[in-house]
Amino acid sequence: MSILSVWHLVVLSVLYNGLASNGVTNNVSNTSIPSVIHVGAILSFESVISKVARVAIEAAVDDVNSDPTVLGGAQLNVTMQDTNYSGFLGILEALKFMETDTVAIIGPQGAEIAHVISHIASELHTPMLSFSVSDPTLSPLQFPYFVRTTQNDLFQMAAIADMVEYYGWREVIAIYVDDEHGRNGITALGDELAQKRCKISFKAPLKDFPSRDDITDLLVKVALTESRIIVLHVYTAWGLQVFDAAKYLGMMGTGYVWIATNWLANILDSHPPFASGAMDYIDGTLTLRMYTPDLEQKQKFFSRWSNLTSTKPVKDRLGLNTYGLYAYDTVWLLARALDAFFKKGGKITFTNDSRLNEHQSGDLNLDAMSIFDEGNLLLDNILKVNMTGLTGPFAFTQERNLIRPAFDIINVLGTGSRRIGYWTNYSGLSVLPPETLYTKPPNRSSSNQRLYDPIWPGQTSQKPRGWVFPNNGRHLLIGVPNRVSYREFESRVPGTDTFTGYCIDVFTAALNLLPYAVPYKLVPFGDGRTNPSPTDLVRMITTGVYDAAIGDIAIITNRTRMADFTQPYIESGLVVVAPVRKMNSNAWAFLKPFTREMWFITAVFFLIIGAVVWILEHRMNDDFRGPPRKQFVTILWFSFSTLFFSHRENTVSTLGRMVLIIWLFVVLIINSSYTASLTSILTVQQLASPIKGIESLVASNDPIGYQQGSFARNYLIDELNIHESRLVALNDQEDYARALQDGPSGGGVAAVIDERAYMEVFLSTHCEFSIVGQEFTKAGWGFAFQRDSPLAIDMSTALLKLSENGDLQRIHDKWLTRSACTSQGTKFEVDRLQLKSFWGLFLICGLACLLALFIYFFQMIRQFTRRNAEELQSTGRSLQSGRLQTFLSFVDEKQEESKSQGRSKRRHSEIASSNRGTGQDESINDSKQRYVESSGKSPDNCENA
């Protein structure tokens, strides 16, 4: 056990035994605000963070003490102590502060010291405010008096995880300092990556202040791993030594990605301009910096910084970094909390424990340590402060993290650095400043994530792949099914470890298209006597026996849960194969193109069209007039003669022609379809089978064959509810043929269900069988790799290239060429043309007929009503009786006769009316009438004469 751990136990034991008793008041301040308020600060003076923070704290104390509106004129006194990078000394310094009336402690700087001192602070009710400890495990539940006044590492690690996902990487390597700061931060990173289906593939811890050899040895191990994405989470004091060693080992070149946490940005800000030599070995690195908005007070403090550091030694004159800004705001946070504390009547009183007198020894003065009586009230006021500081809005969430966590994402270049974007807990990655994002609704969608393109190590703008095959001499172990049938797909060469076949050629062709070499070894899977189960092979990948699996492996649901598959390189769903017989044509073959329903509806429409055209043409077309028997024959003749476009009757009405044109178009389509189907029936060899497809097979009780080891068995049982007693396992093509020939009655099977790729090979040499029905599943074959393997994505891209350049088809033709058997013009029972294929045409034709009839009868009613009105006017008597009969007679009349009769009646009525109106002598009218009849002249001419 380390000295620090021993001292930790001793201190806690003393405090526990001493503070458990009742205490008495040691000294009590006046009811007014004390003139001096004592605050402690624990720093490591030689660190970059402390050198900047000391100046910032001193400036903040001066500003607070010079502001009369804060603390009512009381002076804030901050006493700083140096831990000299020692946890043991840090504890001692904290205990010394407890001996004085210290109301709060600023610091410590490191997470290791913070974990120990937080126990002391909690026991003595002394708030501890740290502007640099970002360890996410310092929970307010365990350490209620620890207040983090900087960003929690949870958010920094979430930002790195979002970057890894954004660039499409899946695995990272973590190099970190092996203490609370490093371990806990990397644990948080692992949790964030896991949420995005990424992971830390290798953890590489370093002790604090490692030697050059320690760093080199660790980096050599890192170089032998697969991932090239390295997250560096260390301290500013020696972090650059890691980059220096990596540069020496060639690990800062093309292909590597280095992501440093905010310690690197802290160095860049503290040493402007950075040494050119150092910039060379961090060129292309990405780092994060805590985001602070460009406020006016921040700019003023930056302008003031050079004056604040002018009195410091040259080595201590550093640039202002974000830790300095947070240190400054921490002092103001405490000052405002104390001001609110006093305004609420708070008093600075301490209580010691008499039992501590028993532990007086040396300079520790344990009996002088006191409990801050109203420390909980001060803590409450600290957490309620809401101000705007140099770092922007400064307040705490319910989880006691600072509000609006955000980071700049920095790309280090040879001449400096540039910001390529931002990360916020509000909207993720963006090139817009956080202030702009906060004015919009939060959007974490992948399409909204964006960064500017960085320059990567090796001075390249092309995004690194992020991984290579490990340089440790290990080959990828790839499982291959050791098949006993369908060896065209893959087969092991006897006496060797090599394989040949269609799947093997596809794999090697795709592998040759990759931009890198893949060391691999093919390992047979199976006993060589029966076909192995591809599902069992894929399961071996999940257990780590194999790195990948290739061959005739169908991509189905339960297998995709075990491994990642490439895109399919061949389609292969389940089909039904059954024995077939040839069908010969017979005397009634001409009826086969249409179904019964189709024949019936077609015949009905022929009659309907004849009747509609007769109605539309009857009044004006002599071809559609005559005795009823003749008209009936005309309707039948006209209807069926349109089938051959040989009707001799002309159509003269517009409505009739419209209906006929639409009907002739329908007849044209029906004729063409019938001719094509009949030609196929009479010229193509037809095959028939009692099995029509998967539906009829499921409905029967006949046995069904399947390939041994195929997923078809589980599919038939689980999805189609076929009892397993009906299923017969078959091993090779000879078993298929024998079982199908024997049939159910001879101990065989009614049909075989297998994947199309196998069945096409089988049918190429067995013409007496055929695929019946449709393919009832959709699947494909692919190569399986371990979960999140980047090789699966690259192989998918290579397979696409093979498909585009035609190589995939050439490999297919090489191994799976069809024989003459399957190239014959055979067809399995041509599908008869059904009514559903033509119902749209019949619907259009029927609507046209209804529309034409509606318009026609509307015209008839209008004409009939007009003539009735004229007759009523001329005769003066009602024609209500026999109106329907009169209308039917009117419709049956020829249109010219109807018009002439109407004109004659109107003329007679006019003459009669004129005679009654003039009152002339009847003899004169008689003489005129006789003159008209004898001379043939009109009455007007007669009168003129």
From TrEMBL:
Entries under Gene3D superfamilies matching the protein: 1.10.287.70, 3.40.50.2300, Periplasmic binding protein-like II (3.40.190.10)
Keyword annotations from UniProtKB, A to Z: Disulfide bond, Glycoprotein, Ion channel, Ion transport, Ligand-gated ion channel, Membrane, Receptor, Signal, Transmembrane, Transmembrane helix, Transport
UniProt KW Protease keyword: no
Biased composition (Polar residues): 911-922, 935-945
Any GO CC annotation of this UniProt entry: membrane
Annotated segments matching region Disordered: 892-945
Swiss-Prot/TrEMBL GO biological process terms: cellular response to oxygen-containing compound; response to wounding; signal transduction
Pfam families: ANF_receptor, Lig_chan, Lig_chan-Glu_bd
Disulfide pairings: C767-C821
Family: Belongs to the glutamate-gated ion channel (TC 1.A.10.1) family.
Protein name stated in the entry: Glutamate receptor
Source species: Trema orientale
